[in-house]
Amino acid sequence: MTHVRVPARVVTDDTGIRAEIPAILVEEGGQCIALEPVVDYLLANYQARSLAWMNKLCQVVEMLLDYVAANHAYFDKPEDLFETFTQRVYTGTIGDDGRDPSNLYWFPKRTKTAKQLLTMLSEFSDWMHKKYGAIPLNPWREATIFEQRLNWAAFINKSQRSFLGHLDSYADAAAAAKQARNTRQRRAPTGDHGETKAFPDDRFMELLFVGFTVPGKQDSPDIVERYDWRGICITILLHWGGLRVSEPFHLWVGDITSDPLKPDEAYVRVYHPIDGAAPKDFRGPDGRYLPNREAYLQARYPGYRPRHRETGNRKSGWKNPKLDDTTQNFMHVHWLPAGIGGRLFMQAWKLYMYQRMRARIGADRHPFLFVSFRSLQHGEPYTIDAYRDAHARAVRRIGLTPAKMNGTTEHGHRHAYGQRARRGAVDNIVTQKGMHHKSIESQAVYTEPSISEVTAALEKANETLSSGQSLPMVPDLETLVSAVKKKQSGNLTKKGR
Q1: Average pLDDT rounded to a whole number, residues 171-188
Q2: I need a labelling partner for 193 at 20 to 30 A (CA). Which of 20, 255, 399, 495 fits?
Q3: Would residue 209 count as lying in a domain?
């Protein structure tokens, strides 16, 4: 059996509305057909899951199809097949001699990645069991005492960390704790997230006004054409506003206003792509204002959808951040440092809007703020890939190398925001609000001290200990042991050497 993954548009009723999902086509009996259970499962989860989640589900199903095709003669029971399949996802299929008779040639996957994929496959199998009566690949069984304790510990830990944990049912938890999967998975290693890679604050202004100059226009007396103000605006939102790289691409033209209390500073709201409040400048056929942004796009701009529901170049992700307002469903950009971020963004935004006016790009085609100036995509929504390329070029212009390990990719700016909050001793609750995390623990990866900071702190501590310790801090182990024995000779009985 061979298979291929393709993008599919599925119509489920007479409205003509299409759900865009990935589909797996398999060859069976000389015909190419869609793997229907996967299509049904993705449609059942279409509103709640992202396209990335759907592709991961397809990935692990495809791995299972390949594994079954190569090893179907070795297993009589589905659970035996799944147990060995699980092992191969973790270990890979290549032997010590570098060969793989199955011709799969899988390399071992990271424990975290493997666990995620296998959990998704187990849940899909459970759904098939309920939907079609299929034999589950990884059935539930009675948990051992040790597993029950682990399940209870996990429940209590989750409940205590949850804002609504007091509503959790201990009766349901007790029943769930008594169950365990037939095939157990590896436990992922725990530890810190690794050193935070933040864009250097002392190079940020250089990035803006050297990196984002327009090639060939560096010496132009016209400040509007001299700089890529669109790239500057987005980068300020990431670095001083703490936004994720995908979030500025959901902004509409009307989402930027002057701060009512500080007119020279920008007041920026990033609305939920679907449920965000629609502008009050357009009414539907019934004479009423549109209920949300998705309806507004459908009514006023046919052909455009919320960008996290788009595919291809128009797509921009949305990680469901914590909103500042649940009536109009938006998050407010909190500038750090306060003042300068809002003022500089306001000036850059005005100059960018001048660029749009000169390019004769209005808001008649769509409402999105950031647009392309290229001839083929003129006026179309600006893409994340195009911004990443522009950011990488800007980084190179100031003599840096774009790399995640250097903090010089676009995500390094959000890390810089978190590090700035930590250095400024900003309260954790305030940092959570500024970074729009649902959990206060989510910001740990952004606020952990760097390896160099930890090293410097420990070296300072070492100096302090050395100055106040009765025993000298010596690098030689034998000298240290001799000093300890000499100090304790009055209290310990000497042993024969």
Answers
A1: 50
A2: 399
A3: yes
Query: Domain residues for 466?
Result: 452-488
Of 446, 232, 435, which is closest to residue 331 (Cα–Cα)?
435
Q: Which residues pair with 138 in a beta bridge?
A: none
Cβ(21)–Cβ(42) below 8 Å: yes
pLDDT tens digits, one per residue of 367-384: 999 999 998 899 999 999
Question: Do residues 153 and 104 both lie within one domain?
Answer: no
Percentages helix, strand, coil for the chain (3-state, rounded to 5) are: 50, 10, 40
Overall pTM surpassing 0.85 (yes/no): no
pLDDT of 117 > 50? The answer is yes
Rounded CA separation 497/489 (Å): 14
CA distances from 203 to 206, 396, 413, 420, 428 (A): 5, 12, 11, 14, 26
The residues, ordered by sequence, that sit 6+ positions from 217 with a Cβ below 8 Å of its Cβ are 225, 226
314, HSE (Cβ side, Cα atoms, 13 Å): 15
Cβ-in-10-Å burial (0-12, 13-18, 19+) of 178 comes to middle
User: Alpha-carbon distance 26 to 482, whole Å?
Assistant: 74
By the 8 A CB rule, do 381 and 367 touch? no
Same domain flag for 309 and 437: yes
DSSP 33-69: EE-HHHHHHHHHTTTTS-HHHHHHHHHHHHHHHHHHH
